[in-house]
């Protein structure tokens, strides 16, 4: 438990206004975006500089108070859910965009900057920061790096990791260090920065990032294809990839999700389709036109019932709204919405979607599935009620079966949300003994005291 | 004496609907200001849920938080899960009032005087209006200001005094007959709500609304001396008084004979459409209130619904921008219709206002209770208005109208010189068709014989 003297010392490091301890102030930090996980912290602090972060870490270390780092708390695996009586270091006030370097195509920012503001700043000078998680209007860039977030453009442009060139981190002993630089090529020693990307706040606190940015694509075209079978949708995807086209977006919604979207947003979609696929290509205008025509032809050849292309950006946005509304539409159906992110190799997509469907039937559950068809990342979404304990039990069983099948098909238990608390139980099964132990020994080496986000991803001791 | 925990008696699924995804955060003016979770919708809901769960006491801090919230409902628009924040907000304010955690003598007195006395009695409100009018037109306000009379009032009220609305010369009852029929073919029969602040400060806008309705084949029924709709009460934790006013309001109209009941104030409209929920426990009124909800229509909503007639003349204005009242856009989801009304006027160029649906800081009596945050929002709004360079801004709620006018008044070189409402511009255009009053400010009642 946190003692008064600890709070007092915090207030000596930081402006007392940035140290929160009263119930009304800290109850809202008991959770992140994950359903049904809740734990009140002991105190919440808002540093403004890396030095302040380091000082807080050193103090916590002296007093053996666990530290949980938090960005905007949009995580969906419980990564920033506090531990009882811990110190939460919240970075949202470290929100300075330090530099846009057009000569080197890089951008430097404090880690509390909102993801969308990064892309907006790039756009101002004709540049582009591709990773676009669905939460980009809220999530912090530090949170993105810590979770290695992906987005709708992942198929063509990759994930956050592909854009991190350097990071400043506070290590568990309070050391402040910079890993990486602006060089496109750099083979000096271990790639240390990579260790921290996706480490979910367990190895260090990221305080600053250097990101790679790209020239902004000149044109974009959006299309929508409707299918009577999931198989046909999956075949189209394979055909597109086989035709050596890499679209920037290939997203899909299943029947349940399409119905919910139509109920909620009234876009005018037929509700008897088995799958709806959103396709997007971007780049040079001529290439975009050609690829779009090819993709539409492939969709038709592979059994699409209907293919529509947007005439312009505005109509494209309207078509994309079907995909963007998916989560919203599902979230309205029942009180509790549990969004999963199992991922399988692209070739196994149709199998996996059919399996999820059968699990829903078997356990009489409502599951809507949508996701990133292009990269095999699925979002089976459980529509349930956390207060119905019997149903929640069935959800758990169903989830375990889905994870089991994912692993069997050579997939991963999390494609973008991270392990946190939610996926901990499944991690060893997926990684196998060797890789799991390697991960533990790295944590042991960097943070022997188990100071940073203990109990997330895995437990240090069995 | 503490009574039942209102938040506990609330249907728990309303609280539970929030999945703490955070999608509401960037749209919340108080969160964006402080970046603290307790000042966010998600944080407030968490606090309320903690109270309902018995994990948190109803404290002064909680009360302060609920009064720091604007009730602008931007969060409700942003929320993917469809959280009914409006209901949570009203219940929470009622909860903190009931717990009497912030009852200073002075606060108690002013609340009692306004909510329990003045706004419950339409005749009294109008009487005060008359007195204020005499006082303002005789220049007594300047004299009193010089004499520092207002030093006697609570500081927040004294500061507000220069912002008191200019009271109209005539109230709606003087300008609108109880029943008016359109000149041409009558296609609809509608009731007209005149509001309380709207009636005192903007009775001409009520007249404009009636004219616009008449020009579109509506017979207009305007019951005399209507009471306040109760939104002020509901938003300030006086749910019982709000129910009382709702019953009275329903009784003033013959629901079965009307195609619609028209409201032209965003804030009132948003509240008027929830009488069904407010009175759902009332054995006598529950069913009526449901019908009422379905009958109430915002004027812009109604105009677009019936396919209103495009005017053939202009309104004497070349460019206009539009500030959305929170409760019209977030509360009632009436977003495109006012723009359609403005776009229908010949010769009028419509310019989008950046952040048009960001609260202007008026928010009921928020500018009295939270002057500092209110001013920040007003400054932001005024700066955005400047970007449009439009000489005229239209809005559709008396609170916003006054707030914008105050903001622009204290900003001399601002390009935007006039605050008006879409119905007023439309009414002007219809009048211009007949060759009356096309340009210049419209004098209330100038074209219509006073009853
Ligand atoms: C509606 C919605 C849509 C989403 N869509 C996507 C999506 O498309 N793709 C995707 O990948 N994710 C998605 N997410 C998940 C989530 O938004 C991401 O994981 C995001 O990166 C979290 O950022 P955050 O700032 O909110 O971090 P938080 O939730 O606060 O923290 C996440 C984790 O990172 C750690 N952390 C945070 N900041 C730092 C730091 N500076 N240094 C070290 N550790 C840190 C925390 O301890 C925690 O373990 C979505 C979430 C929501 C609610
Ligand atoms: S957007 Fe809705 S569900 Fe999400 S945190 Fe805000 S209120 Fe809760
Ligand atoms: S009503 Fe407005 S101020 Fe209040 S929580 Fe919602 S968005 Fe924020």
Total E-strand runs of chain A: 18
Mean pLDDT of chain B comes to 84
Question: What structural category arises from helix and sheet content of chain B?
Answer: alpha/beta
Which descriptor suits the 3D outline of chain A?
globular
What pair of chains forms the biggest interface?
A-B, 34 and 32 residues
Major sheet: arrangement of strands of chain A: 15-12-14-13-17-18-16
Mean of residue pLDDT of chain A?
93
Silhouette of chain B: globular
Query: In angstroms, what is the radius of gyration of chain A?
Result: 23 Å
Work out the helix count of chain B: 26
Distance between the ends of chain A: 23 Å
Note down, in words, how this protein is organized.
The complex is a heterodimer of chains A (462) and B (451). Chain A is built from 16 helices and 18 strands. By secondary structure, chain A is of the alpha+beta class. In chain A, the strands form 4 sheets. In chain A, strands 15-12-14-13-17-18-16 form a 7-stranded antiparallel sheet, with helices on both faces. In chain A, helix 8 (230-242) packs antiparallel against helix 13 (349-362) and helix 15 packs across helix 16 (433-446). The longest helix of chain A is centred in the last third of the chain and has 20 residues, at 389-408. Chain B is α/β, with parallel strands linked by helices. Chain B is 50% helix and 7% strand. Chain B is globular. Classes of the chains: A alpha+beta (462), B alpha/beta (451). The interface between A and B is medium-sized, with 34 and 32 residues. The complex binds flavin-adenine dinucleotide (FAD) and iron/sulfur cluster (2 copies). Residues 27-30, 41, 44, 69-75, 85 of chain B line the site of one iron/sulfur cluster.
